């Protein structure tokens, strides 16, 4: 008679054991991703440290007329360039400006998805990488193979450390960068409001001239 329980246990054990090396490989890849992201993060951090300080009352004056200013990030200045290009068109400028704002905001927040995934996935992979060697290590302990047990325990604990370290760094990057993006979105909305007001004022002047 076929022992269904033994077959299922063997199948689950085979699946669990086969996941160890993919998990280790993913942890190595995620470590490299975090290291590369740390370079771009600190580059932007240095850039923001060099921004000229200005009060909230002065910023609208600096952005008036679609002017770029060293008081905002390169993303905002790039957005201002796109706004100036739209301002030179003659048709559907209001719709184009609104679409540009929504698209730029969506793109910024979309760039945060990678960090959000790392915050969740890295500790989970570390936990998986811990439990798999623990199972094989306990099996080795039952057979009296202390060398195998020691090796599996080392893998188990190191994967936990790596997963938690990746998750912690990713959470730090995510928290700080979210604040930067919120600031950039605010400045983009301010620049959009100023440009929209100028467009409407120009239309009013044209209408008044035609009426006279």
Automatic annotation (TrEMBL):
Kindly list the residue ranges recorded as spanning the membrane.
Answer: 20-43, 117-141, 153-176
In the record, the note on similarity to other proteins reads: Belongs to the exbB/tolQ family.
Q: Which residues form the signal peptide?
A: none
Q: Where in the cell is it found?
A: Cell membrane; Membrane
Q: Name one GO cellular component term.
A: plasma membrane
List the keywords (alphabetical): Cell membrane, Membrane, Protein transport, Transmembrane, Transmembrane helix, Transport
Question: What is this protein called in UniProt?
Answer: Biopolymer transport protein ExbB/TolQ
InterPro entries per UniProt: ExbB/TolQ_transport, MotA_ExbB_proton_chnl
Domain (MotA/TolQ/ExbB proton channel) spans: 92-189
Q: What's the superkingdom here?
A: Bacteria
Kindly give the membrane topology term recorded for this protein.
Multi-pass membrane protein
Q: Which residues form a coiled coil?
A: none
Q: Name one GO biological process term.
A: protein import
């Amino acid at each position: 008679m076929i022992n269904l329980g033994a077959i299922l246990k063997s199948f689950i054990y085979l699946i669990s054991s086969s996941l160890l090396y993919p998990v280790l490989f993913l942890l190595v890849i995620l470590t490299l991703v975090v290291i590369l992201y740390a370079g771009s993060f600190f580059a932007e951090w240095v850039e923001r440290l060099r921004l000229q300080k200005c009060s909230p009352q002065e910023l609208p004056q600096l952005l008036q007329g679609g002017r770029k200013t060293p008081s905002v990030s390169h993303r905002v200045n790039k957005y201002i360039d796109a706004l100036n290009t739209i301002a030179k068109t003659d048709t559907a400028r209001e719709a184009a400006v609104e679409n540009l704002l929504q698209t730029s905001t969506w793109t910024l927040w979309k760039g945060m998805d990678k960090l959000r995934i790392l915050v969740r996935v890295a500790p989970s992979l570390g936990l998986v990488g811990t439990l798999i060697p623990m199972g094989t290590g306990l099996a080795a302990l039952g057979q009296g193979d202390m060398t195998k047990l020691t090796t599996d325990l080392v893998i188990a604990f190191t994967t936990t450390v790596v997963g938690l370290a990746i998750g912690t760094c990713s959470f730090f990057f995510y928290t700080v960068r979210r604040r930067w993006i919120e600031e950039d979105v605010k400045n983009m909305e301010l620049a959009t409001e100023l440009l929209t007001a100028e467009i409407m004022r120009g239309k009013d002047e044209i209408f008044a001239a035609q009426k006279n």
